[in-house]
Amino acid sequence: MIPKHDDAWEVGKYGPIWPRTPACYGFTLIANVKPGRAEAIRGYGHKLAKALEGDPELLAPLKLHYLRWVLFDDDTRFMYQGIFDTDFDKYTDDAIVLFKKAGVDTVFENLEGFPMDWKTNPEAFIKFVREHQCPSFMEYGEYPYVTSDEIKKALKLKAAFSEMLEQMQ
Length: 169
Description:
The protein is an alpha+beta fold. The protein has helices at about 40-55, 90-100, 120-130, 150-169; strands spanning about 10, 15, 25-30, 65-70, 75-85. The protein has a 3-stranded antiparallel β-sheet.
């Protein structure tokens, strides 16, 4: 179980640090879609998938485990769910730097109330996310507290062992 927010939580530069859970860190954001922008959101998803095909390490600085995007209520609402290894402050700082460096926008620009000056105004970006955050009260991790880097290392080790065993046959 994840405790409800209280004054005992550590405070970072952008506010309370949500606790690390067995699934690591993360947040779920739910917001209204700007009218007529659902297809732009889907298009952005396709654009991001294509960019990742070209550069599988594009999002690596974010230390993501996974992202989940959902359009619902007849494409009028959007859910962003991300699980990652760093706390919220670091994730947000890294995301802003990454998007500015890559010269890309964020899917959040299609959401009502999102600050269009987010690249130069991280505080407004943080405020939007915190206002739309829907904290989970329970999370489960099959491999609790394992980082994405540890998972990648384990997979490389498994591949190396498999290759070695094949060569021995």
